[in-house]
């Protein structure tokens, strides 16, 4: 029995949240073969609720870059950033001109600049009442990680002032994730393996982006999507085809998992 960990965005589905039919079939066949499958995303659990995704029958969810773990509906683990650290973080990010998306297990809190961009609008449409303005809801702040917009920001200063608290992952010139120090997708996989008695030798990870790099290196077999970034491809053991060229199906078939 193997445990296969899938990134979501750019791996299982595309920018329009379209899941290839071959991917749906591949996940179904994994289950029929007795393997375990997990979502392993930078998204926190609050934003992993799409039924066409969850309906594929994954055994568990690793959300927020390893800060949240759910297995067959049971909450195994959730790390939340200490309130004092959140307050300090928001102050510094504001000083550095970085609009904020604060990501929790149930709620998200966002600045107006985030709410006005396409991704922010998607979050509001998806979460409805579970997304709130960052300002004015300080007493409700709870978060496992943060994402910020970085055009025009003083990124270097923010990185210097917050380097002891977060690993900072830049996605091109537009967005940066702040993941609490000591957490990553790889650490999440390690926690799942420890909890379920799975050998690291039996792990496979699929990803396409910089926040997948550590799990691609950690898993016994790290597979980068053909449409992935260079950072993901450099960390991978194997590069499969693009998402819409049946990349997941071909890789699982190549390694004899389906």
From TrEMBL:
Q: Name one GO molecular function term.
A: hydrolase activity
Keyword Hydrolase among UniProt keywords: yes
Q: Which InterPro entries match?
A: Cof, HAD-like_sf, HAD-SF_hydro_IIB, HAD_sf
Indicate yes or no for the key word Cell membrane: no
Per the record, the domain of life is Bacteria
Secretion signal, residue range per the UniProt entry? none
* Keyword list, A-Z: Hydrolase
Q: Name one Pfam family in it.
A: Hydrolase_3
Annotated protein name in UniProt: Cof-type HAD-IIB family hydrolase
Question: Organism, per UniProt?
Answer: Brotonthovivens ammoniilytica
């Amino acid at each position: 029995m193997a445990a296969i960990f899938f990134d979501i965005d750019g791996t299982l589905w595309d920018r329009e949240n379209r899941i290839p039919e071959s991917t749906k079939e591949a996940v179904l066949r994994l289950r029929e073969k007795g393997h375990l499958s997990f979502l392993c995303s930078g998204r926190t659990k609050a934003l992993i609720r799409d039924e066409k995704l969850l309906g594929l029958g994954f055994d568990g969810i690793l959300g927020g870059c390893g800060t949240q773990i759910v297995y067959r509906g049971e909450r195994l683990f959730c790390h939340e950033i200490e309130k004092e650290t959140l307050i300090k973080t928001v102050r510094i990010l504001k000083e550095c001109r970085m609009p904020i998306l604060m990501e929790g297990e149930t709620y998200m809190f966002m600045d107006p600049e985030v709410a006005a961009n396409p991704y922010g609008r998607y979050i509001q449409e998806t979460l409805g009442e579970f997304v709130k303005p960052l300002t004015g809801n300080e007493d409700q702040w709870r978060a496992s990680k943060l994402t910020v917009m970085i055009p025009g920001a003083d990124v270097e200063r923010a990185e210097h002032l917050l380097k002891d608290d977060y690993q900072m992952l830049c996605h091109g010139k537009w967005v940066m994730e702040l993941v609490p120090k000591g957490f990553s997708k790889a650490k999440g996989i390690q926690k799942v393996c420890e909890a379920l008695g799975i050998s690291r030798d039996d792990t496979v990870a699929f990803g396409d982006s910089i926040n997948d790099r550590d799990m691609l290196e950690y898993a016994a077999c790290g597979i980068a999507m053909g449409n992935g970034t260079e950072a993901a491809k450099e960390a991978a053991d194997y590069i499969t085809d693009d998402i819409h060229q049946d990349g997941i199906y071909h890789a699982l078939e190549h390694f004899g998992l389906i």
